[in-house]
Amino acid sequence: MELRFSPAEQQLRERVEAFLAEALPPGWHGEGGEDADEEWQVGLELNRRLSDHGWMAPAWPREYGGMAAGYIEQLIFNEAFAYHRAPGGGRLFSVGLVGPTIIHYGDERQKREHLPAITRAELYWCRGFSEPGAGSDLASLQTRAVRDGDEYVINGQKIWTSQAQRADMMLLLARTDPEAPKHKGISCFLLPMRTAGVAVRPLINLAGRHSFNEIFLTDVRVPLAARLGEENRGWYIATTTLDYERSSIAGSAGGRRNVEELVEHAAECPARRRAAVRSGLAERWVETEVGRMLSYRVAGMQARGLVPNAEASAAKLYAGELTQRIARFGVSVLGLYGQLRNGGRWARLKGRFAEQLLVTVGTATIAGGTSEVQRNIIATRGLGLPRG
Ligand SMILES: Cc1cc2nc3c(=O)[nH]c(=O)nc-3n(C[C@H](O)[C@H](O)[C@H](O)COP(=O)(O)OP(=O)(O)OC[C@H]3O[C@@H](n4cnc5c(N)ncnc54)[C@H](O)[C@@H]3O)c2cc1C
Questions:
Q1: β-bridge partners, 216
Q2: What is the pTM of this model?
Q3: 127 within ligand 1 shell (Cβ under 6 A)
Q4: Beta carbons of 114 and 190 less than 8 angstroms apart
Q5: pLDDT tens-digit profile of 271-303?
Q6: Which atom of ligand 1 is least distant from the CA of 362?
Q7: Is the pLDDT of residue 34 over 80?
Q8: 3-state secondary structure of 207
Q9: Beta partners for 155?
């Protein structure tokens, strides 16, 4: 077993670091997540630079504008981007989830229409899977798509749709056969957001930001050609999108950066709290290393052609809960100032930890599969325990 990056991988790490140092605004700290308009704009500019560099979609095949990068190279990109708080600017969905799904299941026309537009940083996607009654149990979704001649007519509601207010397109799941067993009657569609009958309403998150949305679909007509893959096979397509980027490296890399910032700040701590803060910092730092190793294990398995399952859930669970632990610890280290958000005069470290304490409830421990669901997977598939 080789527990080091190869010389070529090490070189790539250095190139990615150098690129980010040049491409991000001077002194960039990343503040509000990509919900904030300024951060979204920085993300779009970064995407243009990545596109010029041929780095917009490292994992994609070369014929679709990618670099055909392996799992370890992807991990290198993702780790550096998270550590430097490079804004996503919509890459997570467009490049990380939707593009690979179209590469797998799209016909030639769909590939030509959508993939180059993503790598040119011109087209942004959101994911319309969850519904008010279908989240962890996604296969219960009720949005209907009914064939009418050479079109489908779609009616229903989606919820928690991140960045839909900015997206051009949605990867949508809808039920096409209500009589079939629930996993077997779902189809997948590529829906332009500006189609008549699509209404986007903001949902404000715990931190008071407009991050996700409700989507109301009323008699939305799309041509048959907007269906991705075979009719009633959408569930299997959806599970493919959920399989991409499973290493969860962003959690531990972002966490490491946060711990380092707290270390710089620890000198301001009152003397009576120093011992507790020192030991807390040491614990959080060890935890970021554990998280990193769990993520490296997932990428290492993928690179060897194995399919991580409970291992990916363990990395996600650990990284998500660690992100929250660091945020909570950061607020306590900074004392009462730590509770102030939004970069006001008295806020410390731009209020980042108070902000993250709120935001990460959703982003780290619910989105992408809740912590309870990850524990179920670890228990049943990892430890062989019976289903509860
Ligand atoms: C920040 C954020 C962004 C999101 N972005 C998107 C997006 O862009 N597109 C999209 O389609 N969706 C998105 N989601 C939705 C997300 O996928 C769902 O919230 C998630 O799958 C949980 O579903 P739910 O909210 O319906 O909760 P439920 O599934 O109703 O769960 C409620 C509670 O019950 C627990 N629970 C459920 N089932 C089990 C079980 N079998 N065993 C033990 N406990 C269980 C859960 O852990 C949770 O605590 C986003 C969510 C968040 C928070």
A1: 157, 199
A2: 0.94
A3: yes
A4: yes
A5: 888 999 999 999 999 999 999 999 999 999 988
A6: 53
A7: no
A8: coil
A9: 144
Mean pLDDT to the nearest integer, 69-79: 93
Q: What are 186's strand-pairing partners?
A: 175
Which of 25-34, 221-230, 277-286, 367-376 comes out lowest in average pLDDT?
A: 25-34
Residue where the block lists tokens 């291992």: 311
46 Cα–ligand 1 center, Å: 30
User: Collapsing DSSP states into helix, strand and coil, what is residue 214?
Assistant: strand
Q: Strand 144-148 to strand 151-158: parallel, antiparallel, or no bridges (unpaired)?
A: antiparallel
- Residue in the structure block whose two tokens are 């707290």: 262
Q: Say if CB 136 and CB 373 are below 8 A apart.
A: yes
Which residues have a catalytic role annotated?
245
- Among 210, 370, 380, the mutation site with the greatest number of ligand 1 atoms within 8 A of its Cβ is 370
CA distances from 73 to 53, 55, 133, 207, 245 (A): 16, 11, 38, 34, 12
Torsion angles phi and psi, residue 230, rounded to 5? -75, 155
- The alpha carbon of 275 and the centre of ligand 1 are apart by a number of angstroms equal to 39
SS3 101: helix
Domains, in order of start, for the chain: 7-89 (1.10.540.10), 125-232 (2.40.110.10), 246-382 (1.20.140.10)
143 lines ligand 1 (CB under 6 A): no
Give residues with Cβ within 8 angstroms of 132, minimum separation 6.
157, 159
Residue type, 179: E
- pLDDT, position 243: 66
Q: If you take atom 2 of ligand 1, which residue's CA is the nearest one?
A: 367
Residue whose CA is at the smallest distance from ligand 1 atom 18: 135
Digit-coded pLDDT (tens) for 179-220: 999 999 999 999 999 999 999 999 999 989 999 999 999 999
Give the integer Cα–Cα distance in Å for 173 and 141: 8
